[in-house]
Amino acid sequence: MRAVRSSRGGAVQEEQVDWVEVPAGVLRRGTPLEEVAEAARRHADTGVPVEWYLKEAPRAEIHVPAFRIARTPVTVGQWTRFTAAAGRPVPQARADHPVIGVTWEAATAYCRWLGERLGLDVRLPTEDEWERAARGDDDREFPWGEEYRTGLANLVDLGIGTTTPVCSFPEGAGPFGVLDMAGNADEWTSTLYAPYPGAPAAVPATEDWAFDRHITRGGSFRHDRDLARCARRHGAYGPDLEAIGVGFRLAAPAA
Asked: Does residue 9 surpass a pLDDT of 50?
């Protein structure tokens, strides 16, 4: 954990990030084309068409260098200190919940601000880094394993209808101990949407209907279990990012 203390207006503030070290390794990215139809069938009750799953194909083995990723998404409390520093105080209510309603530009501005305070290259994770942290060294379907289990993530099946405190679902941790990679807040990555190399012809070259072209991962409290899948590629398809539940987590170079 890296922390910095500063005094502003007589108040002492502390910025902390609980970093998880993700070792270099091979990511079995995406879903084999021959398994896409079966993945769609398993989750057919969610109403997601098979065409959306095609964006995960083809499977590729990608070497991902070592990096650090935050154990949890950025919280309301952490975000409040950033906005207060910019002269825009935000209420501290639900300080331990993930912040949502954040644009990609605002998320990257937070990364720059925090990076300057910590003396680190703080940034958003790439899409491959995010999937590596969620999936580890195998091709598991969900961060915790192969089978979906209600109660391991804040998704629509719990019926909560809003965010929950980060770390509320420790049994839903990924292979490296990263939390909340499924549900609670859909998370920005630094990666612009594009089909994977060798993708089926039916996969769109662009998603012009998206509010923002950057890939999001993990799904939020309002999404179904298909968004909890490690391979599932998503995006911000409407401008109301708070209603959608879009937040973010941090990444940085390996220690």
From this structure: no
> Residue 29: enclosing H or E segment and its boundaries?
strand 25-29
Residue with token string 């069938």: 41
pLDDT for the residue numbered 89? 63
Q: How far apart are CA 172 and CA 219, in angstroms?
A: 14
Domains along the chain? Answer: 18-253 (3.90.1580.10)
* CA 44 and chain centroid, separation: 23
Residues 114 and 82 sit within 8 Å (Cβ to Cβ) = yes
Per the structure block, which two tokens stand in for 86?
């910019």
Which amino acid, residue 135?
A: R
Rounded Cα gap, residues 135 and 151, in angstroms: 19
Distance CA 174, CA 197 (A): 27
The model scores a pTM over 0.90: yes
**CA-CA distances (angstroms) from residue 226 to 41, 177, 196, 210?**
11, 21, 19, 19
Query: Phi and psi for 166 in degrees, rounded to 5?
Result: -60, 155
Q: Do β-strands 186-192 and 246-247 pair in parallel, antiparallel, or remain unpaired?
A: parallel
- H or E element, residue 135: helix 127-135
Q: Which of 121, 120, 116, 113 is nearest to 85 (CA)?
A: 113
Task: Give the whole-angstrom CA distance, residue 124 versus residue 121.
Answer: 10
